[in-house]
Amino acid sequence: MSQEHNEVRLPLIQKLIKLGWNEHQIVVKPEWRVPKAPNEASKRERGAKFDGFPVDVAIFDDVANVGNYEHLAAIVETKSPSKKEGINQLKIYMGLEPHVKIGVWTNGTEISRVYRASDGSYVTHTSSSLPRFGESLILAAPEKISWKDLQPVDQKKLRKLFERLLNVVVARDTKSTRRDDQLNHLCNLILVKLESDKEAKISPDAPAVFQVWDKEEQTAKKIQAYYQSMRLTHSDLFGTDLDTQIQLDSHTIAQAAYELGQYKLIDIPIDVISEAFQIFRTASLKSEEGQYYTPYPVIRSAVRMMDIQPSDKIVDPACGTGGFLIEAYRRLRESYPRMTDADAKGWAQRHLFGIDKDRVNVKLTKAIMLIVGDGSTHTYLADSLREHLWAKNYPDLLTAAKDSSFTCILTNPPFGKELKFSASDGRLSSYAICKKPTDKKDRNTTFIDTQFEERELGLVFMERCHRLLIKGGRLGIVLPETYFFSPSYLWLQSWLQKRFEVRAILNIPMEAFQGFCRAKTNFYIFEKV
Q: pTM score, two decimals?
């Protein structure tokens, strides 16, 4: 063992343990290695071997996370002969370790800290001390962040930020432990960030609300207060949420402010937003309820085939996180480049509608649409199928989703043999597709008006779409191939021929839904007759 190890590192480790760190959180041998360049960092992300600088001491946020670079809390250097050289070396290492918030230099007697402040700058505290376990390592920017300080963010960076927020920050929250609740309140945080950015753009010299303030508690208090004011002024964004506060602890809120505060989340290209939000879309899926993430290539091809026009009024009655709505908006702007931002926003507010029964999906849709500039669109938290419940539970749908009021529908509804719409619901909402056929193996069968059967959700959505469309309106829908090519569904042909003309069938490869759904699906384009 070297003299440095015996005289500096071993006593240092003992001091860290006395300050509350678990000895298994501290890595000395083998030395933690920092990638020497961004391309080496990419190799590490892929799990490949990489060239790195050895670090004297690495400290992780938890014993369970030792070895995971996303959970590296601090690095300590003891090698350099002088304080100045040691601090410069720390800054180099921290520049290559994107998640480290603090570096420590010590020669055994002197201690200096180097923080990565919330604006990305480095702040050095000389004549300092070793960090205690549980101590906040987040430091506010030397000058409060305003609009002019916000940095643009690309697709890869934003996706990584969202992934980290979900998997690292919120996952450790002490106040909210259920995944669905965590997602919901993370969406609330992002909505606050978006509103903060919009306000900062209007008042570019004023400090933005969504940033790290002097202490974690102060950061959380300011963001919570802003959330409460948003609930009053933007009640449409939060639907029936009863929470008057974001149900995440102060540490999580401060961490989110640290991760996102320096970046600009408005005025971002639609492609960047759509790709980055896949992180939340995938996390919000409930495959047991027939929710399957629609891959972007499928969405893009489907929307192109629907030939969206400025005159179209579009709805997705099972909108999930808004993939079809967002792509329809993007496609229209691409097709009509002379359309101004104001015109596009006005078009979206009058022509785009979404309905979903999952609160997280609806909030994600609104968040994405806010970013792309439409003002959050008409997205409703409701059950679009059970029309008999609308007057009592979803009165907004009585006007927003009237029969024969849309020219175009794009949707990927929940489907699956185990996902049934009850016979009683079919009768109460008067769905003809739920009526009992006289012969299920006859493509020209008739239906018994007084008898109803349970029916798969995907099929009931077809009738919901039929009701919503005007005569000549187009329906683009993802459904299992079985419905249209299996002998057991021949009765469906009788129901279809009186209501729709088939205009196109697009094959969707099995691989498109791999990991989400094993059913063979197609994208069908129908015209209402």
A: 0.78
